[in-house]
Specification:
elongated, alpha/beta, 22 helices, two-stranded antiparallel ribbon, Rossmann fold, 653 residues, nine-stranded mixed sheet
Amino acid sequence: MTLAEQFSAYSRWRGETMDAVNRLRQWLTRNEVGDAQSDLRLQYLIDRLRDDKLTIAFVAEFSRGKSELINAIFFSDYGDRILPSSAGRTTMCPTELQWTAGDKPELRLLPIATRVIQAQVSELKHQPDQWTVVPLQAGSAAELQSALTRVGEVQRVPREEAERLGFKVDPSGEDGLKPGSDGLIEIPSWRHAVIQFPHPLLEQGLVVLDTPGLNAIGAEPELTLSLLPNAHAVLFILAADTGVTQSDMAVWRDYVSYGQRRQKGRLVVLNKIDGLWDGLRDDARIEAEISRQVRTVAETLDVGAEVVFPVSAQKGLVARINGDAPLLGRSRLPELERALTEDLLPMKQEIVRDNTLGETQDLVRQVSTLIDARVFGVREQLQELTDLRGKNQNVIEYMMRKIRIEKEEFEQGLQKYYAVRSVFSSLTNNLLAHLGLDALRNETRRTREAMLESSFSRGLRDAMEGFFAHLRGNLSQSTAEIAEITRMLDSMYKRFSVEHGLQLTSPEAFSTQRYEAELDRLEQAFNRQINTTLTLVTTEKHTLTQKFFETVAVQARRTFELANRDVEQWLRAVMSPLETQVREYQLQLKRRLESVKRIHQATDTLEDRVEELKQAEAGMLALLEELAVIEAGILRAVGAEVPTEAVANTRAA
């Protein structure tokens, strides 16, 4: 199965999963067994499934055939190259290829001059007036080619201007851009490009990220701090005719492999193996030479040989366009695509599956518990009313007193519940004070003031490192407060289960480990790109301060925004079962008391009430069966195992 076919299958799987989740949401609303919180959770899950994107980033020095590889894998069905691919530099700025329903086919270009604005690309994406827009004729390969050549546009500027825009300049060209004979520096005209057109793979949620070479990649920290680390797959492209050069090694070390805890989705592509097809070597010698180069590359990059894929992107593209199966096989392009389908998509699908099951099964559990509680209450009423058959008024009055006593005891328990609610609210405020954005803004302001007041590089370093230390302290305090909230709710859940028979399980735990790991990754990137002696000594204080807050602080804010959203959702979710059960138990007590009152007032209504309760019990049991069928449908949609009893319920339905 090709990558395109596999991605289409993944897209269908995602759509079927979304439909199954939507059926659960509609069922909860129709049968009035959900609440506003559960509806919000399911809507959020459906939105995530609908907007799910899968990003593949292509990283290489210039002239490694990166754009040609993108053309060969994704766009050969146009019958020609879509992305510019020629000798020298063609991709001068980070370029995203994507499509969202409702978009217009267009090329959006962000001028390089926006680097002087204290805003990241992600923020500027919401400011259309900052971009140059070129309409695209999506069906015409020639028009697409013509428009996309603009991505490679450059301009020549004085050294001071290049450095002001964030580019390193080095007269030798080894550690920065090399000035021309006229002293001017060639820089990209554009800071970022977004290509929007309705290609089948892009329509299904694929995002292709094409990156510039070493001297341009390091000038856009957002690319290295956010876009690349968050890509689901990164293809690092080398050329067989050059091997691993010093600049290749710098890109690999600093932007691809550094700090990666997982190597899944990080593949090395050894391109241009067709250079070995010189007509002088037979197939055996060519194969031996390719194997030798693969081993050498694997040893140099310290990776397994199984993640190094020798290909010829150019021959693969030609083969696809001309329908030449033997040439396609010789290009080895299908082997790389197979690795992507076997590594990338299953990993992504597993994450989506786990998230979906985590949300839906938690809600199914809550609703099942609620309906079980209603069934228990109905059966309790049935037993009470059945016991009243043939009894005199004294017995009925005794039953009324008994229910009133239960009600009074429960109301006393409610006082403890309200006290817990008050403590919960206080702990929640403490938690959000440490994890919230106000605390982050205060720390950001304090760090900025400390940096601007500092006279020496040591003071700058202390201020920036203090920023991370303070955020870690906030996360640590948040973890302690989350543990206290969990212990308190666990105790209250057990109390209500024992004293009042409520069917409650311990609240689900919440971990801040994910955000701590992201902070670790961010600090590693900061130490590598900003917190170096050379950078601290050679960078002007205001420039360094601006760079720190435009890159590191913005990424930290995103991490804390995500933590805020997740913890707020968790806080609502852990209180919801207790609130629902308390509300339901109050209703059951009220109904029991009303039933016995009605029997006390008119004995002839006893049998009618018993029949009503039997019908109510049957209806609730039917709801449980329907819920089991819907849950089985979700399990089947995501590809998880369906329990035997769920299969039986499905067949019965």
